[in-house]
Amino acid sequence: MSHSHSSEIVQCDTIIKADEIVTQDETRRIIQDGGIAILNGYICGVGTFAEIESSFSSTQKLDLSGKIVLPGLINAHTHLPMTLFRGMADDLPLMEWLEKHIWPVERQLTQELLKVGAQVGCAELIRTGCTAFLNGYFHEQVTGDIAESSGIRAVLGEGFFSFPSPMFATANDCWEQNRKLKEYFNNSDLVRTAVTPHAVFTVKPDELQGSFELAEQLQIPWQIHLAESAVETNQCLKRYGLRPVKLLDTLGLLCKRTVLHHCVDITDAEIELLAENDVCVVHNPVSNLKLCSGIAPIQKMLDVGITVGLGTDGASSNNQLNLFREMAFAALLGKIRHRDASAIGAQTVLDMATRNSAICLGWPELGQIAINHPADLVALDISSPNLLPMYSSVSHLAYAATGMEVSMTMVAGKILYRDGNFTTISIKDLNNEVLEAKKWILRMIDTQKKSKKT
After folding, report:
1. Of 143, 172, 349, 364, which alpha carbon lies 20 to 30 A from 443's?
2. Does 106 map to a domain?
3. Binding site for Zn(2+): residue ranges?
4. Could you tell me if 53 and 115 lie in one domain?
């Protein structure tokens, strides 16, 4: 138990009572019959409920008896508006999926549609216990506005390709937009920005360097898809005579600011290189399976001290934005990949989805329940039959939970979802908007089919 005053009662906004608190703090403390005190969106006390009740007073008591409370999960790699393409093109390899199905429709997307996609994404994240995400897409201001109105945290980057994209004719246009985006969200408590070149096979080396310089100037993370599949490696070798990791290293782009998404097709020597340069890697196991890209050697990365976070990728290549499912897959696949049942254990995947993902977002104070850290919390109902009996909450979070047991999601002390009700999103209106968006997308696909025939 720790807080600033020892004897007098401290006034706070909210006191939470829970059966168990999985703090994910430095010592990974787990508190039975726990209490949390919250003031101005931050945690000001953590301990047993008896300790918290005797030290703090508040007008609002939140009784989460029968629940486990943990830090909100953090999705360290996604493309939120792509929820619009959920299930639109399945069972295809990465390049065919992108070039023949996703990109043609993506080019036609309006800001209105992006807004609907982003809102569905925020609703799904909030519903399944996620309180922050790292995004890459275009018209990112739209997603940022939706994140703010939904009350969830976001780090956003304008996706950039060297060929003219729906957003940018040139690299400089993109850098300009990045500056504007950072300015626009400068005073936001919830939204920050990142620089987001797409990949080494879609962005030229000098523009990769240019984008990195911009990230340095703006003091924000630099994120890129890297070594996602053998196809990408071959393209990179053909074009530059170097594998993707080596290419970034040669360009001087591996450092603490660097966040690499995927790293599936990667050698032991490259893993050492990433560790030496203190980069972050984000593991997206389900998307890598669905696109048949492979299984990243995550335990090897963890063994040499690389910070590995967890992401779902977009709902178009995963079909869910559910980090509970992602944790289970990460743990199960890790065992097969390394032929070791003890590889990537339950505590490891929980760390990946909380503390490590927070570091990947450049927001290390997230992902743990500790004094002076933001009150981003999630509660799970432990009376669900699939969580009975419970010997270890951490085991259940990794292997037994589905995300549907989430009964409350809170960001900065504000409840966004509780017991079936969203407080910041009208699900009914959203359903209607999604139906309209779906009609539009089907029309687009139809038009494309017809134009191919002629």
Report:
1. 143
2. yes
3. 77, 79, 225, 313
4. no
- Note whether 66 and 81 are same-domain residues: no
Residue 141 lies in a domain: yes
Asked whether the beta carbons of 194 and 218 are under 8 A apart, the reply is no
Count how many residues are written for the chain. Answer: 454
**Residue found under tokens 């989460």:** 64
Q: Is residue 136 located within the same domain as residue 255?
A: yes
Range of weakest confidence among 402-406, 418-422, 441-445? 441-445
Last residue of a domain, one of 328, 359, 390: 359
The parent domain of residue 269 ranges over 74-359
Assess whether pLDDT exceeds 70 at residue 6: no
Note whether 350 and 387 are same-domain residues.
Answer: no
| 91 and 65 co-located in one domain | no
Could you tell me the two tokens for 180? 């504007």
Feature table: binding site = 77, 79, 106, 198, 225, 228, 313
Task: Quote the pLDDT of residue 163.
Answer: 81
Domain-embedded: residue 173: yes
pLDDT digits (tens, 9 = 90+) for 361-392: 999 999 999 999 999 999 999 999 999 999 99
How many structural domains is the chain composed of? 2
Contact in structure between 372 and 162 (CB atoms under 8 Å): no
Separation between Cα atoms, residue 168 and residue 202, nearest integer Å: 14
Cα–Cα distance for residue pair 82/84, rounded to 1 Å: 5
Q: Is the pTM of this model over 0.85?
A: yes
Check: CB of residue 225 under 8 Å from CB of residue 187: no
Taking each helix axis as running N to C, give the angle between helix 111-127 and helix 427-453, from 0 to 180 degrees, rounded to the nearest 10: 130
Q: What are phi and psi of 445, to 5 degrees?
A: -65, -40
* pLDDT digit string, tens, across residues 325-356: 999 999 999 999 999 999 999 999 999 999 99
Q: How far apart are CA 195 and CA 414, in angstroms?
A: 29
CATH for 405? 2.30.40.10
What's 353's DSSP letter?
I
In this structure, what DSSP letter does residue 1 have? -
Cα–Cα distance measured from residue 417 to residue 68, given in angstroms and rounded to the nearest whole number:
16
Considering only 3-7, 24-28, 160-164, which range has the smallest mean pLDDT?
3-7
Binding-site residues for substrate, in ranges, read 106, 198, 228, 313
Residue of 34, 28, 37 whose CA lies nearest to 64: 34
pLDDT of 83 strictly over 90:
yes
